[in-house]
Write a structure and sequence with these properties.
By secondary structure, the chain is an alpha/beta fold. The chain has helices at about 15-30, 40-60, 70-85, 100-110, 125-130, 155-165, 255-270, 270-290, 320-330, 340-350, 365-380, and strands at about 1-5, 65-70, 90-95, 115, 140-145, 170-175, 190-195, 210, 295, 310-315, 330-335, 335, 355-360. A seven-stranded mixed β-sheet has the order 2-8-7-6-5-3-4, sandwiched between helices. The protein has a four-stranded antiparallel β-sheet with strand order 9-10-13-12, covered by helices on one side. Helix 6 links the parallel strand 5 and strand 6. The protein is globular, with a radius of gyration of 21 Å.
Length: about 375
C-alpha cells in the first residue's frame, strides 16, 4: 500500500507520538488544570510542554498566547467570528478552503464586507492586488499559506509587511504548511496563525490551535464557547486572560501529549531537511506526470513554489474513477473531488468535477512516487 493522502491527514505517525499518547493513558490520565494532585500536575506539564514546543517551532514569543483547539477549522472560526464585526471589511484569496469560506459567507449575512482577490489558475497571488483591495474599513487579511489543492505557496511574508504598513490584523491558515515549511510568526508579520496537528505536524486528529500575536487585542476576540477552565472558579464570567479565555472544557490532553511529541520530533529532524525531502518527491512526481500526454497537472509546476501536494486529471476518466482504480488495482491511496475547496477549483478551472490529488509526506519515498507514476501511466493507456 502507498499512502498519498497526507494533505488530508498524515500517516504513518512517528513512533514517539504513539508512545507519548500511550504513556499519558497508562501513567497520567488526569485532567490538566482541574486538580492539584500529582497526576493532574503531570497532565498540565505535558500540555504546557506542547505549548512550549509549538512556540519554538513558530518562533512565537509567549507560549501562553498559543490556544489549543480541536483543529484548524475551530481556530479559524475563532478568529473570523470572534474578531470581525458588522461593517468591517475582510480580504481573502480565491484559493481559500471552506474552513474559511463557510464562516466568511455566514459573516457576510451579518454585515461583514468581503473581497476575494483572484489568484492565477496556477495559484499565484500578486501581493500588490491585496494592497489594492484595502479600504478604510478593512480590519483583517486572511490567507491560506498554501493551497490544499494546487500546493501553491502564497506570499505570506510580503502580505504580512503590507498588513503591518496599514495597521491590519493578518490571519494565516497554516493547515498545509505547519511542520512542512518554515514559519516564523514574528519575521512574517503574522498576527493570528491557525494550525492543525494531524497533517504535517504528524500529530493525532482532534488537535490544533491558534497563535495569537501581541498586536491582537484579546478583549476584541470573542470566545467561540464559554465554560469551565479550572481557573477563577469562584466567578461565573469567562476569564479574560490567556489561554483560559479561549480554552473552555477539558482539553484533549492525550492528543496534546502526542502533538507535543510530534513537534519535538519534527524539530529533531529539522524543517529544512523535511522540506528538502518533500521537494525531491514533488519534483519527481511533477516531471513524471507532465511527460504523460493525457494528463493535466495543476499548480505552479515547480516544487520550490509549492508544498508536496500535486493535483491532476486524466483525460477521458473522471477523478473518482482514477482514485478508485488507483486504490483497488494498485494499492495507492489518494483523494479526489473538490477537496472542500470549491473556490480553488473554480480558480484553476476544475470546478465542478474536481481533480485527483496526491499528497506526499515525509515518510514517502522516491520509489513510491515512481510506482505511482507507472500506475497513472497504465491508466492513461486504458483510455479509449
Amino acid at each position: 500500500m502507498i499512502y498519498f493522502d497526507n494533505a488530508a491527514t498524515s500517516w504513518p505517525k512517528p513512533p514517539v507520538v504513539i508512545e507519548a499518547m500511550s504513556h499519558f493513558l497508562r501513567e497520567v490520565g488526569a485532567s490538566p488544570g482541574r486538580s492539584g494532585h500529582r497526576q493532574a500536575v503531570a497532565a498540565s506539564r505535558i500540555v504546557y510542554n506542547a505549548r512550549e514546543a509549538l512556540a519554538q517551532l513558530f518562533n512565537a514569543p509567549d507560549p501562553l498566547r498559543i490556544v489549543f483547539t480541536l483543529n484548524v477549522t475551530e481556530a479559524l472560526n475563532l478568529c473570523l467570528q470572534g474578531y470581525l464585526r458588522p461593517g468591517d471589511h475582510l480580504i481573502i484569496s480565491s484559493l481559500e478552503h471552506n474552513a474559511v469560506m463557510r464562516p466568511v459567507r455566514a459573516l457576510e449575512q451579518q454585515g461583514v464586507e468581503v473581497t476575494s482577490v483572484a489568484c492565477s489558475p496556477a495559484g499565484v497571488l500578486d501581493p500588490s492586488d491585496i494592497e489594492a483591495a484595502i479600504r478604510r474599513n478593512t480590519a483583517m487579511i486572511a490567507l491560506n499559506h498554501a493551497s490544499n489543492v494546487t500546493g501553491a505557496l502564497l506570499p505570506v511574508a510580503q502580505v504580512g509587511r503590507i498588513a503591518r504598513r496599514h495597521g491590519l490584523i493578518f490571519l494565516v491558515d497554516a493547515a498545509q504548511t505547519a511542520g512542512a515549511y518554515p514559519i516564523d510568526v514574528q519575521a512574517d508579520g503574522i498576527d493570528l496563525l491557525a494550525f492543525t496537528g494531524h497533517k504535517s505536524l504528524y500529530g493525532p486528529t482532534g488537535t490544533g490551535g491558534l497563535v495569537i500575536g501581541e498586536r491582537v487585542d484579546v478583549n476584541r476576540l470573542s470566545p467561540l464557547k464559554r465554560g469551565g477552565t479550572g481557573s477563577r472558579s469562584e466567578r461565573e464570567e469567562q476569564p479574560d486572560f490567556l489561554p483560559d479565555r479561549f480554552e473552555s472544557g477539558t482539553l484533549n490532553a492525550v492528543g496534546l501529549a502526542g502533538l507535543g511529541a510530534s513537534v519535538r520530533w519534527l524539530m529533531e529532524q529539522g524543517i529544512a531537511a523535511i522540506r528538502e525531502h518533500e521537494i525531491a518527491l514533488t519534483q519527481e512526481l511533477i516531471a513524471g506526470l507532465m511527460e504523460m500526454p493525457n494528463v493535466t497537472v495543476y499548480g505552479p509546476l515547480d516544487a520550490q513554489k509549492q508544498t508536496a501536494t500535486v493535483s491532476f486529471n486524466v483525460a477521458g476518466l473522471q477523478p473518482s474513477e482514477v482514485g478508485e482504480r488507483l486504490d483497488q488495482e494498485y494499492g495507492i491511496l489518494c483523494r479526489v473531488g473538490l477537496h472542500c475547496a470549491p473556490a480553488a477549483h473554480k480558480t484553476m478551472g476544475t470546478f465542478p468535477g474536481g481533480a485527483v490529488r496526491f499528497g506526499l509526506g515525509f515518510f514517502n519515498t522516491i520509489e513510491e512516487v515512481q510506482t505511482a507514476l507507472a500506475a497513472v501511466n497504465e491508466l492513461t493507456g486504458s483510455v479509449k
